[in-house]
Design goal:
It is built from 15 helices and 23 strands. The protein is α+β, with helices and mostly antiparallel strands and 463 residues long. Strands 3-9-10-16-13-12-11 form a seven-stranded mixed beta sheet, sandwiched between helices. A five-stranded mixed beta sheet has the order 20-19-21-22-23, sandwiched between helices. A three-stranded antiparallel beta sheet has the order 5-4-6. α2 crosses α11. It binds glycyl-adenosine-5'-phosphate (GAP). The site of glycyl-adenosine-5'-phosphate (GAP) has 19 residues, from β10, β13, β16 and α11.
Length: 463
């Protein structure tokens, strides 16, 4: 346990030190469960989103993209069941007043529990096991009863009265509702035929009770969701295909397969046909990275009922009309980022017993692909040549120019942000053969490459 905690602390510390993730509003003492991405974090997040979009939309003839607004008609959230049922069981520690998620406390001691249980069910389990549960903050064992707490975040958008809370607009709790609301628009405009999917990336907001585990669970986060519309009889066949595609996506992303596993939901919501999560082996254990769910026709039927609109599909070939069934894949950008950071974090013992920290990101996800150094900062001809190479390469790749400190220190810094290649311009470059040293992040091996061959060399290596 100590080792895992250490790894988590090391990742959090590196993420802060090297500008991947900052706690939000730090100058005001922080803001619970909200994080900002720094200069390398935003590159990493963008690369993750590009990889997801490529696999989900660009390479698929049957899936189109969407970018729906964060705010939707408030009825959306009644129809979806979020106003009535989107809640987690909350209890307070009577000693230190920490707010705790009771299903997680029970899970931690090996008791099967989840947020879908009723207040009565969860309190029964809580009462039976209270003597085995300790407050994670103060270690005491006195708790209030569990109460279900709704996770939707309310706002006064478009409501100018003082009692707006009676009639709030909601910040979306998941992005897929925007997909359901646009199902008809997409069918009418995108020349799609069932089976087809709609994908979107966007922010979601939830009043999460506990604010632990860094960017794993935050109150503002980004989701990458894909909803696939099928004929009712084909739902499970398509579901199996989607499960395989999503597993392969993580392997193609470069995640180590031994750090992934499937988790089957035992306690399904009443409309669901089947639900699996892909779990990742985070420093705090295997936890949900992504959900892959077969949802039946619940979503479109509910929106049809609440809006009074027909949300059927007319098959022109068979003249059949039906409400499509939906299978979905849903994953957070932050959760993917934490999995990628965990997978990449490596400590290596060097010959001089020093420890090298290196982020072995898959190359396509690395925030910076190439760093260019002049061997010495005060030799103008080296600096000019290095700048020339940097200015040329940055047209193709996210590059960095660095002339601070000595080359060894620059390598260390680039290792910590996971830059696959470092190029050094030295005296041989200028005086001898127009070659530079290219150093490989993972092997630390160096080779001389002709400047005119650099682009081809990197294209090949970064493919
Ligand atoms: N539309 C289905 C849906 O939203 P979910 O299991 O609640 O299902 C899907 O969320 C994914 O969104 C999760 O697997 C996780 O990757 C991400 N996610 C959910 N809540 C999150 C939070 N509070 N912080 C970060 N990511 C979250």
């Amino acid at each position: 346990m100590k080792k895992e905690q250490d790894k988590m602390e090391k990742i959090i510390s590196l993420a802060k030190r090297r500008g991947f993730v900052f706690p939000s509003s730090e100058i005001y003492g922080g803001y619970s469960a909200i994080y900002d991405y720094g200069s390398y974090g935003v590159e990493l997040a963008n690369n993750i989103k590009v990889a997801w979009w490529k696999a989900t939309v660009q390479l698929r003839e049957d899936i189109v993209g969407l970018d729906s607004a964060i705010f939707m008609h408030p009825k959306t959230w009644e129809a979806s069941g979020h106003v009535g049922g989107f809640s987690d069981p909350l209890a307070e520690c009577k000693n230190c007043n920490s707010r705790l998620r009771v299903d997680h406390l029970l899970e931690d001691i090996g008791v099967l529990a989840d947020e879908k249980m009723s207040e009565e069910e969860i309190n029964k389990l809580f009462d039976e096991n209270k003597n085995k549960i300790k407050c994670p903050k103060c270690g005491k064992q006195e708790f209030s009863e569990a109460k279900k707490f709704n996770l939707l975040v309310k706002s006064n958008l478009g409501n100018f009265t003082s009692d707006w809370e009676k009639d709030p607009a909601y910040l979306r709790g998941e992005t897929c509702q925007g997909i359901y609301l646009n199902y008809k628009n997409v069918v009418d405009t995108a020349r799609v035929k069932i089976p087809f999917g709609i994908a979107q990336i966007g922010k979601a907001f939830r009043n999460e009770i506990t604010a632990r585990q860094f960017i794993f669970r935050t109150r503002e986060f980004e989701q990458m969701e894909m909803q696939y519309f099928t004929h009712p009889d084909k739902e499970m066949e398509e579901y199996e295909k989607l499960r395989q595609a999503r597993w392969q996506y993580y392997l193609d992303l470069g995640i180590k397969e031994e750090n992934l596993k499937w988790h089957k939901h035992e306690n399904l919501v009443f409309y669901a046909k089947e639900a699996y999560d892909i779990e990742y082996n985070y420093p705090f254990g295997f936890k949900e990275l992504e959900g892959v769910h077969a949802r039946g026709n619940y979503d479109l039927s509910q929106h049809a009922k609440f809006s009074g609109q027909k949300l059927e599909y007319s098959d022109t070939a068979t003249n059949e009309k039906y409400v499509p069934h939906i299978i979905e894949s849903s994953v957070g950008v932050g959760r993917t980022m934490l999995a990628v950071l965990t997978d990449a974090y490596t400590e290596e013992k060097l010959e001089d017993d020093d420890i090298r920290i290196v982020m072995k990101f898959p190359k396509k996800l690395a925030p910076v692909k190439v760093a260019v150094f002049p061997l010495m900062k005060n030799k103008e001809n080296l600096v000019v040549k290095a700048k020339e190479i940097y200015n040329d390469l940055k047209q193709e790749y996210m590059c960095e120019f660095d002339d601070n400190g000595n080359v060894g220190k620059r390598y260390r810094r680039q290792d910590e942000i996971g830059t696959p290649y470092c190029i050094t311009v030295d005296f041989d470059t200028i005086e001898k053969d127009n070659t530079v040293t290219v150093r490989d992040r993972d092997t630390m091996e160096q080779e001389r490459v002709k400047i005119e061959e650099l682009k081809n060399y990197l294209e090949d290596k970064l493919k």
